[in-house]
Amino acid sequence: MGLELFLRNLKYLTRYNFKGTYNAAHQNTLEQLRQETNLLLNKMVDNIPWELELMPHPNVLSSQETVEALLANDKLSLCRFGDGELYMAFLNQGGVFQQFNPQLAAELKEVLSSRDPNIGVAVAYPLYHSLQEFHEKQRLFFRIHGQQMRQMLQPYLAKDWLYYDSYCSMPYHLFTSIDFAAYFQRFAQLWTGTSADSNAVNTNAVEGEREKWKEGSTAQHTASAKLDQGKDIVVICGKTVFNKIRYNIFDTARSIKYIYGPSENAYDHIDELTEQALQTDPQHTKFIILGHTATVLAYRLAKAGHRAIDVGHLAKDYNSWRMQEQLTTANIFKFYEKD
Fold first, then answer.
1. Which residue in 142, 208, 131 sits closest to 176, CA to CA?
2. pTM of the prediction?
3. N or C: the chain end with fewer CB closer than 10 Å?
């Protein structure tokens, strides 16, 4: 990262993070402001050698490599650890979707410690690598929170173990310029068995459909043509996850069985969700969209012989790309709101 880019990011960081602090200055001493400023600057400085990839780090696959690994090994499950799962496990903090639960925190630590080759533990690849390909707001996030997240992960990650990228499920909100159509096509092969059909990734139709949707279309899903070679899958999600989604990325599967859990505090019902999932065909891959609970549920199902993939924000991210939503601050906040 060049000095000019660093200084430009530093200027943005100052404007982005200190505005609220400045407005509330009458409630704080100058010394407090100085301490907060130095703390944030120290966090950014700490991240520089990681971005330059000068530090020894765990073996974490990139987003694209993670998708390829899932396609190459039909036994591989995936349990994702984003910032929310780490804060739950190590800081006793709940989030938008899940209040703090000590049992959930304990299970998350168990998952993170797993050395089962068929249970992929996914952590944030950007914590240990260059942030050049990422959106500016994502770069800022990792520069501010990276130090703390690495410290939480460090005691649990083995040097001789392979990890996967927990951010593989939100490429549109993460990367600035990759081939999103190709990326989503590859991900969709997990349930189509081949590239997603043209209706699922036809960028020529996106603009017109987006305008129709903005004008008040009441449809919530499009029924893409099912592929003959598609797979039968199970989607485990909150009751309202798909309510505002126009383009359902899973519609290219041959068949979908939905198992619905609560949109908030799903961990309170994890035993019954586990039981329902285990009653389905073990050959049908489970795709889970259930916040913190998805990490643990995928782990439980994988141990019981069912392939389970925690796909996080994949459905919402795909829909955002198909709608060509602008990644404004307001839209990003909306993206992370509870459904």
1. 131
2. 0.80
3. N
